Amino acid sequence: MSSLDAAFDILQCPSCGAALAAADGGAGCANRHHFDRARQGYLGLRAAHKGKGAPASGDTVEMLEARERFQGQGFHDDIRAAVLAAVPGAEPAGAGSWLADLGGGTGWYAASILDARPDLRGVVLDASVPAVRIAARAHERLAAVSADVWTGIPLRDASVDVALRIFAPGSASEVRRILAPGGTAVVVVPDADHMRELGHGLKLLKVPAGKADEVAVSIPDAALVSREEVRSRVELTVEQALDAVFMGPNAFHQDRAKVAAVLEGWRAPISVTLAVTVLALRVP
User: Fold this and answer.
1) Cβ burial, residue 235 (10 Å; 0-12/13-18/19+)
2) What is the spatial order of strands in the sheet that 179-190 belongs to?
């Protein structure tokens, strides 16, 4: 059974909330909503939601390439290690448990967790079609779904044991809805001084102070079981600094050539702070 076929155990229709099952060319529900399965191996579960506008398009190919270069050079390895440490160990009867990576992009974090937890199956949900094309090949036990998790998570109630939200916005109530009893949400929140040096001379998006504290209490009945601050100073070339800017949402608001012109005027290497908080919240 493929990873995507297995995921029908937990997927639900984004239009009506009914259970999904494999159907000719993709998936369907009892209310005759149909969704296509792409030849690249991912399932498209994008649906318009009344009053919420068109579904988000997600990260571009250029953003994904910048992130893969940045991660490939080891700059996020400490964050990945903290995420792995925050995921609870396998339960004795944990075979068949599910991990959901919400806004998980190419599945970089999810694949590492599946390597460490052979009892888990996983699903990455992301609005970016280029991202889920990559995620569909990231791990043999990882399914990939194109979905706008900001407007709703197309997973059944109490269906997942671990939910990841890494550098991704989302609804805490939706995360709570999909977590099984005793399940854990692992959330990575950038701190206010994350990459602050790159903001000098550039109008980059800012993270408000205290964001991690808000997330820590965002699921009212969840217990905070771990909190780790991951901080480091890295020395970047101009190209690496450009990737740091353009691998995230700043890419939608900046012109790469103009940012490059500013960075070229700085003296390399460029010293940059990486600062995030990794939270683990467990529900009853």
Assistant:
1) exposed
2) 43-44, 142-146, 120-126, 97-102, 160-166, 179-190, 270-282, 223-236
Residue the block writes with tokens 């909190």:
227
At 108-121, the pLDDT tens digits run: 999 999 999 999 99
User: Which CATH code is given to the segment(s) 56-282?
Assistant: 3.40.50.150
pTM tops 0.85: yes
Each domain of the chain, given as residue ranges in start order, spans 56-282
Q: Record the tokens describing residue 166, joined without a space.
A: 């890494």
Paired with 166 in beta bridges are 188
| Sequence-separated (6 or more) residues with CB below 8 Å from residue 45 | 11, 13, 14, 27, 35, 125, 145, 146, 147, 154
Count of other CB atoms within 10 angstroms of residue 115:
12
Nearest to 3 by CA among 132, 183, 150: 132
Q: Which amino acid is at 278?
A: V
d(CA 265, CA 146): 40
pLDDT tens string 57-78: 689 999 999 999 999 999 999 9
Whole-number Å distance between alpha carbons of 117 and 131 = 23
Residues 127-152 have pLDDT tens digits of 999 999 999 999 999 999 999 998 89
